[in-house]
TrEMBL record:
GO terms for molecular function: copper ion binding; oxidoreductase activity. This is Plastocyanin-like domain-containing protein. Residues 148-223, 276-363, 426-580 form the Plastocyanin-like domain. InterPro entries: Cu-oxidase-like_N, Cu-oxidase_2nd, Cu-oxidase_C, Cupredoxin, LPR1/LPR2. PANTHER family: MULTICOPPER OXIDASE LPR1-LIKE.
Amino acid sequence: MGFVLCRKTMTRVMLLLIVTMTWFVAGDAGGTKPEERLFNIEKLEMFVDKLPHIPTLHGFHIVNGVLKPKSLQIGMFFKKWKFHRDLPATLVFAYGVSKHKATVPGPTIEAVYGVSTYVTWRNHLPSSHILPWDPTISPAIAKRGGIPTVVHLHGGIHEPSSDGNADSWFTAGFKETGTKWTKPTYHYVNRQQPGNMWYHDHAAGLTRVNLLAGLLGAYILRHSSVEKPLNLPTGRKFDRPLIVFDRSFRKDGSIYMNATGNNPTIHPQWQPEYFGDAIVVNGKAWPRLTVCRRKYRFRIINASNARFFRFFFSNGLDFIVIGSDSAYLAKPVSTKSVLLAPSEIIDVVVDFSKSTTKTAILANNAPYPYPSGDPVTDENSKVMKFIIKHKSETDTSSIPTKLVQYPRTDVSKSVRTRYIAMFEYVSSADEPTHLYINGLPYNAPVTETPKIGTSEVWEVINLTEDNHPLHIHLGLFKVLEQTALVETEKFTDCMTEKNDAVKCQISKYARGNKTAVTAHERGWKNVFKMMPGHVTKILVRFSYVHSNESYSFDATQEPGYVYHCHILDHEDNMMMRPFAMVK
């Protein structure tokens, strides 16, 4: 017993040392409160920086007119980045082929259907993090120093060893690796439906700080024979990713993140959500873009840690939605606003020839935390500005009446129903301490084992007060219905005690008002917003949705896959579960 007590004491001392070092590195050691050193965002003039063009990397070779697989070397570098003309340069972590060319966001990788892309991800980061992190939420920790990283291609359908498992992390030079690390070079087979993805860090317990530091970028999969007949806007000028996220800064330009948790005696640093004051698009705070009076295609990615965006145009322009997450819709949907949770992607066409004004502000009015948090401020209610040229321009692109038709889904052919319950736990002070799925932490044994080539119905039960964007690796899903719970407190008490939806008679409680699925969210998704106090029924497909064919790789291999809330602060604090595919 004495040995155990001694070991616990030593562990506690080591954790305190780590936290102290972390605060020092983050610049919060000393007598000055970090809030007193925050940059006054109100002093930054909006729309002074042009919207940057993100560099492009092709994930293929062209040899004698034939497309061939290509190997890329992409590093993670420690460098300075200018987020705004009047803000001092910021220390960031950035993806790129070299330190000089590394950017925030990282380069957009463009791949082609059926042509493999190989990427060796290399960690060139320093020994200590630039942001505070919490050692009590089971993060990846390198014993010999260094920052653990691993890359997940969000929306990608590929082998488990290339999926970027949270425990497949590695440090600089692969000196240390996680328990599920497999290989340095990832193989993206690119045999799924064409669409939009994004790559980002996925290291256990560090995802929120590694993304906040800048480790994210877009990935586009093209399929000429499918997309060319659609005649949508194309080309570098008229087809652009917009990667949106929020950040706060100190007076010296460094990224601000809290150094003290909401339950410091439990978690010294962790807080349930991160929200920044400045809205950044393609690496610039509140940028501007001059556009012609014609149609543009924007692939909008919400790369925030926790902020939801409800986008709309100040002059009433429409979004014509053509895709959601990594898949095209069956037909375009016109809407005045789009709600995007963290990690969701919306693919839209905007026709500026319809504008009655010379400028248009892309705006936001989503409360934070969503849906019942604070109203937006003047700073976070504005995203970017479009300056619209007076003269019309020839536009040969069009918006088709139909887009991409996928094989029909049949719920009656699903092989089983699973219940996925979301729990939040609080301290005696009613402050969140951690979040579980099905009452289990991330490192508990696998409980979901879907069969390759099948469909399953998942009934996702949100017992919390937050909207949780659920992301499923590998599988795509369609949202079937959203039903409010009745007598929620009684049902939650039963679930807390028994953790069994059937024994708690879920059918007795899932009979409240139904909320229709928004028209542009009825296609194939890999993330969806799980409403608080609701049961959201989804149909998950574990095969290629464009062909219903089985995967072109062995999906049963280690280290398997995961599903999780994509509010990064929740994901990092246990709101993630593994699943293993079986044949």
